[in-house]
Amino acid sequence: FLIIALGTAQKVGYLASIAAFLTIIVVYLAGRWSDRIGSFKLLRWGTVLYFFGWLGCLFADSALRIFAVNSFKDMSQRFLLLPWQSAFYRVVRPENYFQLVVLRDMVFNASRVLVMPFIILIFLFVANPYLIVFLIAAFFSLLYPLVGGQLPIEKSLKLS
Q1: Is 51 within 8 Å of 142 (Cβ atoms)?
Q2: For residue 62, what is the DSSP state?
Q3: 102-146: per-residue pLDDT in tens?
Q4: Are 83 and 26 in contact (CB under 8 A)?
Q5: Which of 111, 135, 143 shows the shortest CA–CA distance to 43?
């Protein structure tokens, strides 16, 4: 998407470098805010912000907009993933660490395997596939709190 919109890999590299620097700052702030306001509240805020980041991709049609949207989406993803991973690792005990990490990765990859055929069909048969794919990504990002945030993670990930 970025190479199509910006035209060259070099421009994408510039954009990604600046966005990565801003993301480092946001990771620091998210860690501090997570301690202050609580990780589950930050998870909910991050989920909403990440949702709007994906929706913002629909309006990114110039280098400046792409930079702004990509930076916002990357930063909001940190507000989402930091408390999500914190909640996940709080319940991990040394004796079931490997099982829980594998389970987490299986959930993510299984969801990708289920959605990917639909995305392929969208790109084959729809005139403007990015619109639909960004909407799918936006709505699926709203599911993060269901995998450990809103549900009691200790009960949902119990392994013997």
Answers
A1: yes
A2: S
A3: 887 887 788 889 889 999 999 999 998 989 999 998 998 888 777
A4: no
A5: 143
Pick the closest to residue 17 from 78, 72, 81, 71 (CA basis): 71
> Residue 135's pLDDT is what?
92
Residue with tokens 């993670």: 153
Q: Cα–Cα distance between 103 and 152 in angstroms, integer?
A: 16
Nearest alpha-carbon partner for 87 in 115, 47, 114: 47
Count other C-beta atoms under 10 Å from residue 23's C-beta: 18
Residue with tokens 């993301």, as numbered in its chain: 23
The two tokens of residue 6 are 């910006």
Stated pTM of the model: 0.71
pLDDT at residue number 54: 92
Phi and psi, residue 148, nearest 5°: 120, -15
Position 65, amino acid: R
